[in-house]
Amino acid sequence: MVGHLLARGFRVALHTRTRDKAEALVARGATWADSPRAAADGADVVVSMVGLPDEVRAVMFGDDGLFAALRPGAIVVDMGTTPPSLAQEIDAAARARGAHAVDAPVSGGDVGAREARLSIMAGGDTAIVAALEPIWSTVGKSWVHQGPAGSGQHTKMVNQILIATLMIGVCEALLYGARAGLDLPRVLQAVSSGAAGSWSLTNYGPRIMKGDFEPGFFVEHFIKDMGIALDEARRMRLSLPGLALAEQLYVAVQAQGYGKKGIQALELALASISGLPWPPPPVSAPSGR
Amino acid sequence: MVGHLLARGFRVALHTRTRDKAEALVARGATWADSPRAAADGADVVVSMVGLPDEVRAVMFGDDGLFAALRPGAIVVDMGTTPPSLAQEIDAAARARGAHAVDAPVSGGDVGAREARLSIMAGGDTAIVAALEPIWSTVGKSWVHQGPAGSGQHTKMVNQILIATLMIGVCEALLYGARAGLDLPRVLQAVSSGAAGSWSLTNYGPRIMKGDFEPGFFVEHFIKDMGIALDEARRMRLSLPGLALAEQLYVAVQAQGYGKKGIQALELALASISGLPWPPPPVSAPSGR
Hints:
The structure is a homodimer. Chain A has helices at residues 2-7, 23-27, 36-40, 53-61, 84-96, 109-114, 126-131, 133-139, 151-179, 184-191, 199-210, 219-235, 241-258, 266-273, and strands at residues 13-14, 31-32, 45-48, 75-78, 100-103, 106-107, 118-123, 140-147. By secondary structure, chain A is mainly α. Chain A has two domains: 2-148, NAD(P)-binding Rossmann-like Domain (Rossmann fold), CATH 3.40.50; 155-274, N-(1-d-carboxylethyl)-l-norvaline Dehydrogenase, domain 2 (Orthogonal Bundle), CATH 1.10.1040. A three-stranded parallel sheet of chain A has the order 3-4-5. The longest helix of chain A has 29 residues, at 151-179. Chain A starts with a helix and ends in a 16-residue tail after the last helix. In chain A, 50% of the residues are buried. The mean pLDDT of chain A is 96. The interface between A and B is large, with 84 and 84 residues.
């Protein structure tokens, strides 16, 4: 994302916890900053992209956090996936010093970031979200303003709730097909384009069949996101049994040692519940078309 | 389906439980048969399309069932969604009298049947399935031979397992979004084309938002299909927690009086769990794009 901003001509001051990761960008013209506070010093827009709520809190509100240097009129943008209630807290803190906040989590993954094809879900004041269009169009292929502070994060939670149950279905369906002795590529050919079809089936199905569980999207990050969604839902007095089941199944995936695998590793945990190996033994394909 | 067969020039003898439904087809050239047995008399291919396993058994093996008139060399085709183990039983009965059986359930729904765009999942002997190509191409847009007897039904179960968990995700995600005060059309715009996207979200999402729960695909038929899948999974010693949750939630949908609504009526049962109305109160949409 920083690379795309540099290529478009933005001046970027950059801080990461692991400095090595920044070297190539510094070589391309980014300025190294020793802390989030240093990165925010004099900036018009400060973008944060870290994972866990406590980390976001430290980056925002710590002694060396970006709020320590945030000037009035500046815009703080949190592009990580973090709690909607935290987005509202950041918004309140920004307003208190005459600055602005936007929550703008993304979907599209590593590939979307590399190819500047992220989908951006933005929450915040309309004019402020619109003013950031040059950034959105540099790192993303689409952006939608969802409403006030927190709405971007809530929209990301909708996205993650959809993926959570989708993955259960994809993994259970493949497990059933394998157990029934079906030729899975043929099954996918029959079901992928109709009412049972989804991005997850088309993209994860073939990888799961081959036993390819490399990330993609990490199991442990997904568990963090589902935890946020469950916390928010509980706070809103909302019961989501499907999401709760997905979260528990992913806790099992992590417990079995697959926390740093991709979310398609759910297949391994589901197969293990029934004592089955994965990938399944090969099936001789019937002829036909 | 019969209308398309007549239009293509097939000679069709036809039996249904409700004769009125057949009148228009008889007017177009189909011959009325007083029983499945009469419909099968002298036929090269006998197609059954009924719902419940006991009904299929009666149509096949009853005193007036089609097996009573099935001639050697004829092909029995079950295009309903019925248990894979029943397909194997029909196959064995057909072989015992020198005939053939094919299980060929479909996806695509009422619309697919009317528009001859069904997707056909066929199980049976390769040569026999291939010999039926004139029928497949008349009523469907695609067909895939999945393997021996029962494989078509097993593939349909894969399809239904995918839809079951998809619907939980779509309904929980919309419920979360509504509860969080989001503008749902905007949310769908943001999440439909990425990793969270699916046919179900694109097609059912807008109907659910409007409170349109007309079928489509009936809740009570879906419960029947999920029951078959759970029975078969149990028989194969396969635990499918997501499918089991979906089936239980749909039992609740039916218990609340929505058995003859479309499967998107799951939203009503999920909202009721948290004491929420559906559709949700309107939200004023933010500007932006």
